[in-house]
Design a protein that fits this description.
Blueprint (H helix, E strand, L loop, with lengths): L17 H9 L7 H10 L6 E10 L2 E9 L9 E6 L6 H13 L9 E5 L4 H6 L21 H13 L3 E9 L3 H14 L13 E5 L5 H12 L12 E2 L2 E2 L5 E4 L1 H4 L10 E7 L8 H25 L1
Parallel strand pairs: 3-4, 3-5, 5-10, 6-9
Antiparallel strand pairs: 1-2, 2-4, 6-10, 7-8
InterPro entries: AstE_AspA_cat (IPR055438), Peptidase_M14 (IPR000834)
Organism: Pseudidiomarina aestuarii
Protein name: Peptidase
Length: 309
């Protein structure tokens, strides 16, 4: 672990109040366009898929329509799978991995599963390259009823309206060097706690749900992604980000109690991907393709398992 780094906002040991959160917000600036990068790509999918606006975010710093892309031909007898990207807007390959799956691969599975993809749950975070939303809330700790975080509540409400069981959910994420240089120090400052940075795994790994571990499912995704990019090795203590490795390339978190996105359904097969785009061994394109491989690896396992059962 690295030494503690003290963030520049707030008083050490004291949680942020409204003034500190406003100071933080005032320092955030638009760096890229959600409309140009994401909405335009979604619009281009309308001939092949059904595109729906499932909600609207209205902040003083920006207004955003939220879009979900799903199979045009819906078959109630088939399993339904969910893909989420951009829960943390700064995790670029999560957004573009979800889009790339729709652009290149999803159609090959449409006669076997119903597909629901939320390409970018946190558009302000995407534009400002941020982990939090404008209220300094982390959407990936807010997938709980009554959290008040619309980035998290609105997709949950949409899935509830579908009234269909979910068989698989793959949530696409990244771990970047800014986790240590910005986001973990900011979180500790906000909560009034002590920050100690973690060793960022060099490569791809998965976070499974401790209550739905499904080791074979996770292993199938690791094999699929391993054909595209390198799988991370644990640190000297056998951990990824401070959590013991369960099997090669996999750790587990308790998804629902933590309010994680992968906990928002009761799907039997769930996972969160983590790529490391700052690794000298990879590049942004490879990270996007690795995200697609994670989805297809999970889908192939699901379909194989169902055919055997």
């Amino acid at each position: 672990m690295a030494d503690e780094f003290v963030y520049h906002i707030g008083t050490k040991g004291q949680p942020w109040g409204a003034e500190e959160k406003q100071q933080w917000l005032s320092e955030q600036h638009k760096k890229r366009s959600y409309v140009d990068d994401v909405v335009t790509a979604i619009d281009a999918l309308k001939e092949q898929f059904t595109v729906e606006c499932y909600g609207h975010l209205e902040y003083a710093v920006g207004q955003y329509d939220l879009f979900v892309v799903k199979s045009r031909q819906w078959h109630p007898e088939l399993p339904t799978i969910v893909v989420t990207g951009g829960v943390h807007g700064y995790e670029t390959s999560g957004v573009h991995g979800a889009l790339r799956f729709l652009q290149t691969t999803a159609a090959a599975y449409e006669d076997q599963v119903n597909i629901v993809v939320f390409p970018c749950l946190s558009p302000w975070g995407y534009e400002t390259i941020n982990r939090w939303n404008p209220t300094a809330a982390d959407p990936n700790r807010s997938f709980k009823e009554g959290s008040g975080v619309l980035e998290s509540e609105l997709p949950m409400q949409y899935l509830a309206r579908l009234k269909t069981p979910i068989a698989m959910h793959v949530d696409l994420h990244e771990t970047t060097d800014t986790d240590n240089s910005e986001f973990r120090p900011a979180l500790a400052a906000k909560e009034g706690t002590v920050n100690t940075n973690w060793n960022i795994p060099d490569g791809f790994y998965l976070v499974g749900d401790a209550d739905r571990a499904e080791a074979d499912f996770q292993a199938a995704i690791i094999r699929s992604v391993g054909a595209i990019t390198h799988i991370a090795e644990p640190d000297d203590q056998g951990n990824f980000i401070g959590v013991p490795m369960e099997q090669a390339g996999v750790i587990n978190y308790a998804a629902k109690p933590l309010g994680l996105c992968m906990g928002m359904t009761n799907a039997a097969y769930v996972t969160t991907t983590e790529v490391y785009p700052d690794s000298p061994k990879t590049n942004p394109e490879e990270c996007i393709v690795a995200q697609v491989a994670a989805i297809t690896g999970g889908l192939d396992y699901l379909l194989s398992k169902q055919s055997r059962d």
